[in-house]
Specification:
Number of helices: 10
Distance between the termini: 21 Å
Number of strands: 0
Largest sheet: none
Shape: globular
Order of helices and strands: HHHHHHHHHH
Helix content: over 70%
Strand content: under 5%
Length: 196
């Protein structure tokens, strides 16, 4: 059982002053959470969703799937790879247009766009020298500020075509997945031996 299983059960009975619509929405959300945490396929989907989150990505998806949900390493690895790769083509193809649209229609977010563009250009300097091999290595290093999201952003700002950038990013994500699987196994074994 997971730490939130008891909370999910208790939350079903709590809302007395809520409207019928609020109660129905709450029950639907709780049913989804219950499915994501109690059925093997739901746990697989949950790991995919966690791995899609920027910054967390595969680095957090594999440990979450294995240590929190109890997925086998192979299932967590595959789910994390899928989740980490889903946003990549959209970032490479559309991020510059999205930033341009944000500048026109949401000027308050200009500072955020500036920071993201600056980050892409700074990281791009490391990648430019080795091009696609550099992009693969950059994505493969499972540290904050690297990964598939930032790699896709760098590829977009270096005008790398999707058909060439995608295999490099995918190879980097596979390597990062192998590294994170080993680190997760090491961490779990270390934690188990300390508690034993």
């Amino acid at each position: 059982t997971l730490p939130w299983d008891g909370r999910i059960a208790s939350m079903r009975t709590r809302p007395r002053g809520a409207s019928r619509h609020q109660r129905k929405s709450r029950v639907i959300i709780l049913d989804i959470m219950q499915w994501l945490t109690s059925v093997p396929f739901g746990e697989f989907v949950f790991t995919i969703l966690v791995s899609m989150i920027p910054v967390v990505e595969l680095r957090g998806g594999i440990p979450f799937g294995v240590a929190t949900l109890g997925l086998p390493y192979a299932a967590a690895f595959v789910a994390a790879i899928i989740g980490n790769m889903i946003p990549v083509p959209f970032i490479v193809v559309y991020i510059r247009r999205i930033f341009l649209w944000m500048r026109r229609h949401m000027p308050r977010l200009n500072s955020l766009v500036d920071r993201l563009e600056k980050k892409a250009h700074l990281k791009g300097q490391n990648v430019t020298r080795y091009k696609y091999l550099g992009l693969m290595i950059f994505v493969a290093i499972p540290l904050p500020g690297t990964g598939a999201w930032t790699g896709a952003l760098v590829a977009a700002f270096l005008d790398m075509p999707l058909r060439k950038a995608l295999p490099s990013i995918f190879a980097g994500v596979l390597l990062a997945g192998c590294i994170m699987s080993l680190l997760t196994a090491f961490g779990i074994n270390l934690f188990s031996s300390v508690l034993a």
